[in-house]
Amino acid sequence: MSERTSSTRSGAVGEDVLGRLIKGGRVEYGLTDLGRTLVEPIAVLTEWAHVHGGAVVEFQESQADDGGAEGWFPRASAHLRKS
């Protein structure tokens, strides 16, 4: 992102992670060098969720039945369930 412009953007991702480039009236976004360092950790977490998501859902459901974990953390999304 060589022609990155400065802007104010709402949200949790700052320009140090997600850059903005204006080309011919179009705005293109892309990862900066710092942002690209997040690709591997996010891939590892994604794989962990695929492998262990079913166990997380089972635990949450077992605790919810007892009135336990429901208030501790939000319930896992249905996409974490193993098919």
Which features does this protein show?
two-stranded antiparallel sheet, 2 helices, alpha+beta, 83 residues, disordered N terminus
Structural account:
- 37% of the residues lie in helices and 14% in strands.
- Strand 1 and strand 2 form a beta hairpin.
- It has helices at 33-36, 39-65; strands at 18-23, 26-31.
- The chain is elongated and about 60 Å long.
- 0% of the residues are buried.
- Strands 1-2 form a two-stranded antiparallel sheet.
- The chain is an alpha+beta fold and 83 residues long.
Sequence-ordered SSE layout with sheet pairings:
Elements: E1 18-23, E2 26-31, H1 33-36, H2 39-65
Number of E strands? 2
**Low-confidence parts, pLDDT < 50 over ≥5 residues?**
1-9
- Total helix count? 2
Strand order of the largest sheet: 1-2
Mean pLDDT: 75
- Main beta-sheet annotation: 2 strands, antiparallel
Using the CA coordinates, give the radius of gyration. 19 Å
Tell me, what's the shape? elongated
Order of secondary-structure elements: EEHH
In brief:
This protein is of the alpha+beta class and 83 residues long. It has helices at residues 33-36, 39-65; strands at residues 18-23, 26-31. The model is unreliable at 1-9 (pLDDT under 50).
